[in-house]
TrEMBL record:
This is ABC transporter substrate-binding protein. Residues 1-28 form the signal peptide. Residues 81-417 form the Solute-binding protein family domain. The keyword RNA-binding does not apply. It comes from Streptomyces ferrugineus. GO terms for molecular function: peptide transmembrane transporter activity. Gene3D superfamilies: Dipeptide-binding Protein, Domain 3, Periplasmic binding protein-like II. PANTHER family: MONOACYL PHOSPHATIDYLINOSITOL TETRAMANNOSIDE-BINDING PROTEIN LPQW-RELATED (PTHR30290:SF65), PERIPLASMIC BINDING COMPONENT OF ABC TRANSPORTER (PTHR30290). PROSITE patterns: PROKAR_LIPOPROTEIN. It holds the Pfam family SBP_bac_5. The keyword Lyase does not apply.
Length: 497
């Protein structure tokens, strides 16, 4: 099978994208506040998966729109900084956080210690738990304007965990139904006022924001899974900010309108170790040896990515400095026509092409390969249930806490909630526990790399490349965030001239 050649975006695609987006953005450009500020039109890649519940990955949308906030935020180095909490200190298993005074939720109610405890307790007792709390038993109690957070074992990463958008603090009204509803319940500079299912969202400026008045009067969001349509929206002027510009379109856009940032995101082939062909370690080794990641980087990503040496990439420079050669336990066997099904999704336009390239490479090595490609919302449950022999995923490695230990635990621990490889290994579990328990600093980084090596030694996953985020900002956009962790997009300072 030959991959299609790259082409310039045709005029018909631009027209189609314009028609697709006009319903959401119509009239938005002319809407201005007294100072002439324009609403910001944003085209986002993935529709909400769980009704914008902060207990799911949808939380990162709430964070990128600056509508829901957390007790702590992270700086560029991943260190914890004040947000809704102003100070904190540790005493054994307990951390005490002082809650910021003068903050109100979008419904006018006051932020206090009880509100913080309610949100944290909802997250800690949810089923399933937010990914950031994998393996963590957490309780919260109010004491005046302070909140004590206690974990079952001493946890050096509590502040970093509390920076996860999945632990956003919302008003009481958000928790009145069966699902958590963030509409009108955040504390950020923009209030979520309307959600149009999986098609759109509307946010208006919250003038009582504790951190100062936002420069833009509001945000109009359209969810556009098709990457070509998102790129067309930037070219046609239908959107002001476009996230996740496909590599295939980046080269044909005005380069002054795109920003490319190396990010902690790895394109990985997860191999199902629980059943099927890849339960055999020798066939996992054969698959690993058959994969030519450099060809994928050059052919699919047009050089706009970095070939992977491990699960953690150049966004974490210390990883390469600490990494040692991996000693694997199995030699490559002969596939002899072993039949495998590889799953992936269409939401990131590169994924089907990566899967098609892998199909060619693995068939050349002797596997018989079938592809199953769908939208992510329609394939995630099957992937988590282990219904594929392998799954191609673009995975953020420090998305939750700014620390890769949480990602490694979630994806490769026996009890991890995102264990696509159906992987169970006592030695890896021990290595992951050590990494999670070690204090922040050089020793923790060394333990993280040791855990990475243990995963790679078992060929539970084959890291192929590290991605770069490509974001489009129209010429009039000022101070849009370019965040490699994908937590910030529109901030209090973002506006359109």
């Amino acid at each position: 099978m030959r991959l299609p050649a790259r082409r310039l975006l045709p005029v018909t695609a631009v027209a189609a994208a314009s028609a697709l987006l006009t319903g959401c953005f119509a009239g938005a450009e002319s809407t201005a506040d007294a100072a002439g500020g324009k609403r910001i039109r944003v085209a986002m890649m993935q529709p909400p998966r769980s009704g914008l519940s902060p207990l799911s990955d949808d939380a990162f949308k709430l964070s990128r729109w600056s509508t829901a906030e957390t007790l702590v935020k992270l700086d560029a180095d991943g260190d914890a900084q004040p947000a809704l909490a102003t100070t904190w200190q540790q005493s054994g298993r307990t951390w005490t956080f002082e809650i910021r005074d003068g903050v109100t939720f979008h419904d006018g109610t006051k932020l206090d210690a009880d509100a913080v405890v309610r949100s944290l307790t909802e997250a800690a007792t949810a089923s399933p738990k937010p990914r950031i709390l994998d393996g963590v038993e957490l309780t919260a109690k109010a004491a005046g304007n302070k909140v004590t957070v206690t974990t079952a074992t001493e946890d050096p990463l509590v502040p970093q965990r509390l920076s996860s958008p999945q632990l956003s603090i919302l008003a009481a009204k958000a928790y009145r139904g069966r699902a958590v509803d963030p509409v009108g319940a955040g504390t950020g500079p923009f209030e979520l006022t309307k959600v149009g299912g999986t098609a759109s969202a509307t946010l208006d400026r919250y003038d009582a924001y504790w951190g100062g008045k936002a420069k833009a009067p509001g945000i109009d969001v359209k969810f556009v899974p098709d990457g070509t349509a998102r790129a067309a929206a930037l070219r046609s002027g239908e959107a002001d900010i476009v996230e996740a510009i496909p590599v295939s379109q980046a080269a044909v856009l005005d380069q002054d309108l795109i920003t490319e940032v190396p990010m902690p995101r790895t394109n990985t082939l997860y191999l199902n170790t629980g059943k099927g062909a890849f339960k055999d370690a020798s066939l996992r080794a054969a698959a690993r040896e058959a994969i030519d990641a450099e060809a994928i980087v050059k052919g699919v990503y047009e050089g706009r990515a970095d070939v992977a040496e491990g699960l953690l990439g150049p966004a974490l420079p210390w990883a390469a400095e600490l990494r040692k050669p991996v000693t694997r336990g199995a030699e490559a066997g002969r596939p002899n026509g072993a039949a495998i099904t590889i799953g992936t999704y269409t939401d990131r336009s590169e994924m089907p092409e990566v899967a098609a390239t892998l199909q060619q490479q693995l068939q050349k090595a002797g596997f018989k390969v079938k592809l199953d490609v769908r939208e992510y919302t329609n394939i995630e449950s099957d992937a988590l249930a282990g219904r594929f022999d392998a799954f191609v995923l673009s995975r953020a490695t420090v998305l939750d806490s700014g620390d890769p230990a949480a990602y490694l635990y979630s994806d490769f621990a026996s009890g991890g909630t995102f264990n696509l490889s159906q992987f169970t290994d006592k030695g890896v579990d021990e290595a992951l526990k050590k990494a999670s328990d070690t204090e922040v600093g050089d020793a923790r980084r060394a333990a993280v790399i040791a855990a990475e090596g243990a995963v790679l030694a078992a060929d539970a996953a084959v890291p192929m490349l590290h991605e770069r985020v490509i974001q489009g900002d129209a010429a009039g956009v000022v101070d849009a965030a370019h965040d490699p962790r994908e937590r910030a997009l529109v901030t209090v300072d973002t506006h359109v001239k």
